[in-house]
Design goal:
3-stranded antiparallel sheet, alpha+beta, about 20% strand, 4 helices
Length: about 130
């Protein structure tokens, strides 16, 4: 069992890794959702750096859905953190209708929990009902 200092050092390291992942890269990503036109429920959450192209690609699979941009001007890491947080919020609620097939961030990564914490903070501050 490690000392309290080594535990604190590990937490600090994972926080720094997560912060580095969040800040790295150009701020040209958007987070979007696909909302069912009939029920109004979000059925898909995603990220892209080309919203017009991605909306067109989804149009074939989600023909009765509205492509709605949640936020823009994010790094890829920030977008992934928000996407994964929305995915996990829905999955853990037990009423998820999300049709996402994969995680945006591998839950086994050491920085996973920190990325979700950042995503939760962002959603609470900006889109609490998403």
């Amino acid at each position: 069992m490690g000392s309290p200092q080594s535990s604190a050092a590990k937490r600090l390291l994972t926080l720094l890794l997560a912060t580095g992942k969040l800040a790295k890269g150009a701020k040209n990503y958007v987070v979007y959702v696909l909302r069912n036109d009939t029920t109004g429920r979000v059925e898909y959450v995603g990220i892209t750096n080309n919203a017009k192209k991605r909306a067109y690609q989804h149009g074939k699979r989600f023909n009765n859905h509205t492509f709605e941009i949640v936020t823009r001007g994010l790094t890829r890491g920030q977008a992934r953190a928000i996407e994964e947080t929305v995915y996990m919020r829905n999955k853990l609620s037990g009423v998820s209708e999300l049709r996402n097939r994969i995680h945006s961030i591998n839950p086994k990564h050491p920085y996973y929990r920190r990325m979700l914490q950042w995503g939760e903070w962002w959603l609470r501050m900006n889109k609490p009902n998403l």
